[in-house]
Specification:
There is one protein chain. This protein is mostly beta strands and 194 residues long. It contains 1 helix and 8 strands; from the N terminus they run H-E-E-E-E-E-E-E-E. The protein has a 4-stranded antiparallel beta sheet, with no helix packed on it. A 4-stranded antiparallel beta sheet has the order 5-6-7-8, with no helix packed on it.
Length: 194
């Protein structure tokens, strides 16, 4: 004699609703696991993670560690004439702005003004991220300073090619500010001869 299984119990029958409910619950569990990270998980690979402020103090880029795009005669060294440091772009990391020129014991050579940012790799050199005044424009810089997040300077120039390079005869005050993801030059009123 064979035993009868008896009537089908309600919990042993599979229906479409049962499978949909199971799939939804399983999907919720998978999604929750994908979203949860351990507290010590690194977020350095996350997009935009480099835009977050650093966890601890960061030193300003060292101007001596940079190779400047200067065309110095006879392999002359590049002198850092002046420098200021501060967080100019609001990312929590200081930038260094430098005034540089080719080394010379006599005469006044053109200056370049460059914005330096921290190295992109550990142990790397700082990098030039912006040129505010190009050396080939034959300008000299005075009264160089940082006020808040604004770089300010007086830019000296020459009214003609025959003006002696020792004695600039034109000047204009400039400010440079970080706006909309770039440095913007804000010239003051043009001055005549000095």
């Amino acid at each position: 004699m064979q035993l009868s299984a008896g009537p089908a119990l309600p919990h042993t029958r599979s229906r479409g609703v049962h499978w949909i409910t199971t799939a939804a619950a399983l999907g919720a569990v998978v999604a929750a696991v994908a979203l949860v990270q351990p507290a010590d998980a690194s977020q350095s690979a996350a997009p935009g993670a480099s835009d977050k402020p650093p966890a601890g103090p960061v030193t300003a880029p060292d101007p001596a560690a940079v190779t400047y795009p200067m065309n110095c005669a006879a392999g002359a060294a590049v002198d850092v004439v002046s420098q200021v440091s501060g967080d100019l772009d609001g990312d929590g990391r200081p930038e260094t702005v430098v005034v540089v020129r080719c080394h010379s014991d006599v005469g006044t050579l053109p200056n370049g003004v460059f914005v330096l940012s921290a190295p992109t790799t550990a142990g790397g050199a700082p990098r030039i991220v912006e040129t505010l005044v190009r050396p080939q424009d034959d300008r000299q810089i005075s009264d160089f300073r940082l006020e808040g997040g604004t770089v300010k300077a007086t830019v000296l120039g020459f009214s003609s090619d025959t003006t002696p390079r020792c004695c600039p005869d034109m000047k204009r005050d400039y400010s440079w500010e970080w706006r909309d993801g770039r440095y913007v030059a804000l010239p003051g009123p043009a001055d005549g001869s000095i």
